[in-house]
Amino acid sequence: MTLMTEQIASPPVDSYQVKGHPLFGHLGSWLLNGTNYPAEVALANEGIARIKVANRRFLIVARPDVIRHIAVKNRENYRRGSLANALIPEFGETILTVSHEAWLKRRRLLQPSFHHSKLPIFDRASLWAAQVLAYRWQEAAVKGEAVPAVRDLRVALVQAMSKAFYGSEIRKDEAQDLVEAYRDALALAYRRARSFRSFLFRSPPPHRRESEILRERLDELVRPKVSAALASKLSPESSLFASVVETAKKAGLTEEEADDLLFQEIRGLFAAGIETTGDSLPWILYKLAQDKAAAARFYEEADRARNRLLAGHTLFDEIEDYPFTTALIHETLRLYPAVPAVGRVALNDDQIDDIAIVAGEEILISIKAVQKSPLIWDRPESFDPDRWRPNDPRLKNGSWIPFGVGAHLCIGNSVALRSLTTFLLVLGMQFTFTDRNDHQIEPNSKRLSAGPAEEIWLGLT
């Protein structure tokens, strides 16, 4: 499969233009600072900035009103940009990479499987995986050993997803292999999307042989599980796969077409889960280990959750049953969005107040910048779960968008929030966490996602 190349128009020179090197523009700073750089530029220019990066030009956006115009009010005028294109060689055409009609078709087929009525499938899988992880961590707690939170939580999340998707359990080593394969694939996608060549020629390096090897590796890990799940004839009430196949067949797809669609989408869904929920969990536990006051309030809710389980009830009906845990998640996702930015390309000219957008212009919606904007947030760099209130309007006005915004809102956002809540409460029932790192851990700025740049070591008591 070949990558699409962008034909980018030159926007008019205006007051939002940020000067750079006369020949290469902001190329050096972007390559040096990675995904941090667009956010830095947006924050330094009140949420709107145009920059030239070698032969490409970007309009960087971090203002809620402009974001909602692009992603909601006039969304038909914008399609996904080169960031999504970069994922195609390893993951193919999935709901994560396609736009407009192709995206809408896939969304309609997958949406019933993420309906509220299907959430118990994910809840049960997350509860099981969290309990398995807690059992493994007990040995480390007894010995006084620190645990590698990033590695272990990614593996546990993959085990939860596999149980929800396949309706069966996978071993720890199988989950670890899957995590490593996806991490390697996404690292290659970043190299492709943000290489010198991609900025200079608007055509990212193909890395064809590397892509083929990684895609074959993913196929070897995923396809047998998919085939086994399909052969087992699971019910739609116990497996996401069965639900997707049922919906696809109702839409008129043949069994072969439905199976192929399922295999394509599972590659993208695993990637999204590992890079979002899998990376958000370590950040939350890390903040709890550093903030004793927040931790004390969280452990109170974890104790209440334990009592619910002991009484024979489900862990929760809605995540809002645990308001401080919900605020803790919202605040951590604000500070550490898994995806720092999303791209769009304008199909036709557009006007947003005094911002003139021309057809073909690349827009970068900086999630990181809007969620740290001092124009929106008081003390934006501070960790403060108390800034959140039930039904906070910032959750819906384009100020807090870790799962995207508008029609392209992550299809699994509800699942992710419930899975985060489940893991946190189950682990909080068993342990208190201490910071066993000798320095501050920072986000990785040289990947498409912004998980921890290194392992987070946590003590357990």
Q: Strand order, main sheet: write it out.
A: 1-2-8-5-3
- How many E strands? 10
> What structural category arises from helix and sheet content?
alpha+beta
The gross shape turns out to be globular
In DSSP terms, counting alpha (H) and pi (I) runs of 4 or more, how many helices?
18
State the helical fraction.
40-55%
Order of helices and strands: HHEEHEHHHHEHHHHHHHHHEEEEHHEE
Distance between the termini: 51 Å
The whole-number mean of residue pLDDT values reads 89
Low-confidence stretches: 1-8
> What kind of sheet is the major sheet?
5 strands, mixed
> DSSP strand (E) fraction?
5-15%
- Radius of gyration using CA atoms only: 22 Å
Describe this structure in words.
This protein is an alpha+beta fold. It is 52% helix and 9% strand. The protein contains 18 helices and ten strands. It has helices at residues 27-33, 36-44, 64-73, 82-85, 88-91, 100-110, 119-143, 149-166, 172-193, 196-201, 208-231, 240-250, 255-275, 277-290, 292-310, 323-335, 367-370, 413-430; strands spanning 48-53, 56-61, 78-80, 147-148, 341-346, 350-352, 355-357, 362-366, 433-435, 457-460. The strands form three sheets. Strands 1-2-8-5-3 form a five-stranded mixed β-sheet, with helices on both faces. A three-stranded antiparallel β-sheet has the order 4-10-9. Strands 6-7 form a two-stranded antiparallel ribbon. A hairpin with a 2-residue loop joins strand 6 and strand 7. The radius of gyration is 22 Å and the shape is globular.
